[in-house]
Design brief:
Two copies of one chain form a homodimer. Chain A is mainly beta and about 160 residues long. Helices cover about 10% and strands about 50% of the residues of chain A. The first copy, chain A, contains three helices and nine strands. The interface between A and B is medium-sized, with 22 and 22 residues.
């Protein structure tokens, strides 16, 4: 078990990938407010992840690597469409950003996440960093299967 | 991944345990018809199990052993009360029965399950075997948290 302390930001157009990213497909077996159960295929490996309720920017997380074949079969059991994205990793000072460029129903969405040692930690802000969206529910991957980004624009 | 082929029966009063059973506590992160996600603590070990939709007496099952501490923490995330039972194993001919004696909200319920190599397999019937309840949804453990056996009697 790990406590996840993460902050999430939008990414503005000045950001460009510096190297190849890792393709991710993920789905959800459960997206209740109290907990989510995620199935993920990332870089040819499978993962099953349970996350508890968000408390501010903290969240309980339990992640297990599972056989790829299991993960692929379980993706078929998931509710709704899958979340598809390419993940890029970029160092900035002592920190490492994960930049997710979505495709499919969430095409056009790009967010950057940073994992922090504690919820007061300071970190340098890259020039491409946009507005903070930590805790904004609609940016949760578990919500992007129900209300994909492509539908937001119409509102 | 495994395909579970199981048949489930009630157990009549003539059955008596021959040796100590194994205490099981389990809860559900998800109990949708299409899939369930179960957290279980059994004999001091933790398990996370995803099951697909039942097709007759067959069901896709993915089970992973996880750290006990994770399982105990995840039980706190589960919906509703836990299912508590003691599981006994009993050989009968070439087959092994699992007999679950429920307690707590499901006190009084006792069911026996047998795992079969295929859905046509024949097996000897112990004298204590009651009515078959394979596929009866209310006997699913995932339903016993929502509609426990103690409440059936009132209906």
């Amino acid at each position: 078990m790990a406590k996840e302390i993460e902050r999430k930001f939008l990414v503005n157009d000045s950001w460009q990938p510096k190297e190849d990213g890792q393709r991710i497909a993920q789905g959800y077996l459960c997206t209740e407010p109290a907990h989510t159960v995620r199935v993920r295929v990332k870089g040819g490996r499978g993962y099953l992840t349970v996350k508890g309720r968000s408390e501010g920017i903290q969240r309980e997380e339990f992640e297990y690597e599972i056989p790829l074949r299991d993960a692929e079969a379980m993706l078929q059991l998931c509710d709704g469409p899958l979340v598809e994205k390419v993940r890029y990793r970029e160092k900035w000072g002592a920190f490492c950003w994960e930049i997710d460029v979505f495709s499919g129903a969430n095409d056009g969405l790009c967010v950057a996440e940073i994992e922090l040692p504690d919820d007061q930690a300071e970190f340098p802000r890259p020039s491409w960093l946009g507005r903070e969206v930590s805790g904004e529910v609609r940016y949760y991957n578990s919500q992007l299967i129900k209300h994909p980004y492509s539908e937001w624009k119409k509102v």
